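Researcher: Please translate sequence to structure tokens.
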Amino acid sequence: MSEPGAQKRHRLFIALPLSSDVERALGQIIDDLSVAGARVKWVDPRNIHMTVRFLGDTDERLIPDLKKLIDRVVSHTRSARVSISRLGAFPNLKKPRVFWAGLDQETPLEGIVAMAEEIERGVQALGFEPESKSFKPHLTLARVKYPDGLDPLCRAVHDYTVTPIDVSLDRLVLFKSTLTPQGPVYDRLHESVLGAERFE
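Model: Translation complete:
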């Protein structure tokens, strides 16, 4: 990667966005859980997405190559229809750091996982450090700010019954994240549509 300060740098990530209907459904889950009163940072439903690769502080001269990488990968990756059906936490509900909504465990995700692995190889070829964790499809709902007083929320998450939410993962986006006092603002720098089933 180029020398720091040589060009403008941006906080970037690659993700699969959600439809407004799915965002609203996740917003309702957040509303239901937030009554537990834990001191966590809830994600704005409009900002919820499935992160494929967080890139972080990136020289803007790499953006054209990242766009080409995304286009190349989606050209042979089919869209996926999945279902959100469960809640959980990383690393677990006993010592949570992140609360998430997860996909039905019966959903076949080989194509999406293979896409994430190809993206990983591609960004490493551009000079990014290897990702320390393997890709685990999930949607972050909240991040823990203070570890105390989480028991009511953990019980609520454990007992919550998710009415399955159908999701179409049909496009891959290069996002720019700008941190503000009101929360992050996400701008789409590039968007490419995954191969659709209608072409079969």
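Researcher: Any highlights?
Model: The CA atoms of residues 176 and 187 lie 5 Å apart.
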